[in-house]
Known about the structure:
The structure holds two protein chains of two kinds.
Chain A: E1 4-5, E2 10-14, E3 19-21, E4 24-25, E5 31-38, E6 44-50, E7 56-58, E8 64-68, E9 73-78, E10 87-95, E11 102-103, E12 107-112
Parallel strand pairs in A: 2-12
Antiparallel strand pairs in A: 1-4, 3-9, 5-6, 5-10, 7-8, 8-9, 10-11, 10-12
Chain B: E1 4-6, E2 10-13, E3 19-25, E4 31-38, E5 42-49, E6 56-57, E7 64-70, E8 73-78, E9 87-94, E10 103-104, E11 108-112
Parallel strand pairs in B: 2-11
Antiparallel strand pairs in B: 1-3, 3-8, 4-5, 4-9, 5-6, 7-8, 9-10, 9-11
Amino acid sequence: AQSVTQLDSQVPVFEEAPVELRCNYSSSVSVYLFWYVQYPNQGLQLLLKYLSGSTLVKGINGFEAEFNKSQTSFHLRKPSVHISDTAEYFCAVSDRGDDKIIFGKGTRLHILP
Amino acid sequence: DVKVTQSSRYLVKRTGEKVFLECVQDMDHENMFWYRQDPGLGLRLIYFSYDVKMKEKGDIPEGYSVSREKKERFSLILESASTNQTSMYLCASSLIVSDQPQHFGDGTRLSIL
């Protein structure tokens, strides 16, 4: 069965510094990969998705993620964070042909002034 | 834009009550999902539905049931609420194909006293 591991439950980072949130998934032949963001008291919003093609995927709010098949990873990056990026971030994966998405446990991003 | 609406943001019920959580989506999506979100556990799938009157168990269906009488509406039912069902409940919808992201409501924070 597919599984997703987000290695850090919390990540503190200073404002305007770069950040990387790590995500690994269990091996599969073909997968779709997603990052979602959850701002306080809201539901989840899609940040970006990888379906096929270029391994570097750009999303909203300046975020990007890189698909690495050999390492089964899909790490999320932003070169310069802002206080408004304070949120919880979820990595998710689905096997092709499966309607269900498996979510990681989430990484809480704390932006320090 | 896709709109997924959950009927209540906050709900307080008593142990043993039958509780209904309602979710409506306006984009004619075939798939609908109910998750619960708990700190440190991420999102766990309770039930999902891929068509009217169709349902499938997720990872934690015990103590819950669902109803989908119309395509746009997916109800989660707690047959006899217990304190361990105090949680944030998130509804989501998506198109039938597996490369499509899920769209989430803002959640219902349910407290069982």
